[in-house]
Amino acid sequence: MYPFIAGAAAPNTSEGYTSDDSRFCGPGTLDETLVKGKIVFCDYTTYIEGPVEAGAVGVVVQSGRYKDYAFTYGLPLSNLNLNDGRNVLNYVNLTENPTATIFKTTVEDDQFAPFVVTFSSRGPNPATPDILKPDLTAPGVDILAAWSEAVPLTETEDDTRVVSYNIISGTSMSCPHATGAAAYVKSFHPTWSPAAIKSALMTTAFPMSSENNLEAEFAYGAGHINPAQAAQPGLVYDAGEIDYVKFLCGQGYTPKQLNLITESNFTCSEETNGTVWDLNYPSFTLSTSPGNSITRVFHRTVTNVGSPVSTYKAVVNAPPGLIIQVQPSVLSFKSLGQKLTFVVTVGAEIGNSMISGSLIWDDGVHQVRSPIVAYASLVE
């Protein structure tokens, strides 16, 4: 057990700091003579330098953050939610000689995993509400990877520890997983376009679920990447430069904006104006204002990359409030590379939340799954 002190009770007054400063434990705000050898309680901190330079032996933080992931710090540190933090702070303030200890971190299995961590951004897509974002999910929590020995373990000046491997969390950890999965798919299919590879990753992803129906696909997109399955997706939704030009023209982009994006002299016309619902994307999304009903028609084309002769049947999952019609409902292919077009009509009655279903093209071997999302948009 170590002596326990609140950061607010140990301001570095010689440097002009008050308890309003030291309660957050920022660099230079703590009085070393009061903090050294003790565990310090910080109301909220993104810093570890303050307690480290003041000689603390540990830190307890009340922040409400980091409830589903962890970081490595230069000192033993325990993150508490706001309720627990308030109780601990009361103990520190109301006890004559408060003491504390910080036990070694333990790891527990989470029955709800995999789920999307709190730090990951959510949809909907603010620029184009009728394209689902994110596209898919990849591992990004507590990832073990090589670490430069030129950088300290915690990237802080006071931390002199050097390691060859480290464990960190972030979307910057998820991105390399998705990139590696894309490279893996491309190693089997070197001529595939970026759109075809994205389609393979999205339509073979593990479906995920969420207790919060207000986020669902806005958290995980098509699901969790499944690289082994993505190498043989069966069908792909392919798209090229002209498809995206048509989409941008339909979105009202000017010739100058098009040139900045494409670095080509494209111009928009009636022939090149497309709609967002006809972009050959592996997901289907429609938005409307709260309380309205809506119907959208999506035109899609799939390319056969599975068995030369194959027949796919449409399997629709439509919960109450969502009507999904697919025409034709059977796609019969006679060769590899053959393209077939179909139309999906989606009708929805939307309150103030999201309704989601799916379309799966199934040939008995491949299940090519696309999420279908209808939601109430607050974007005008």
From TrEMBL:
A Pfam match: Peptidase_S8
Keywords: Hydrolase, Protease, Serine protease, Signal
Domain Peptidase S8/S53 as annotated: residue spans: 116-223
Any one GO molecular function term: serine-type endopeptidase activity
Residue stretches making up the Subtilisin-like protease fibronectin type-III domain: 278-373
InterPro entries referenced in this protein's UniProt entry, alphabetically: Peptidase_S8/S53_dom, Peptidase_S8/S53_dom_sf, Peptidase_S8_Ser-AS, SBT, Subtilisin-like_FN3
Gene Ontology biological process terms from the UniProt entry: proteolysis
Ranges that cross the membrane: none
Top-level taxon: Eukaryota
PROSITE patterns the record matches: SUBTILASE (PS51892), SUBTILASE_SER (PS00138)
CDD domains per record: PA_subtilisin_like
Entry coiled-coil feature ranges: none
Entry similarity comment: Belongs to the peptidase S8 family.
The protein's name in its UniProt record: Cucumisin
Source organism: Gossypium trilobum
Lineage, broadest ranks: Eukaryota, Viridiplantae, Streptophyta, Embryophyta, Tracheophyta
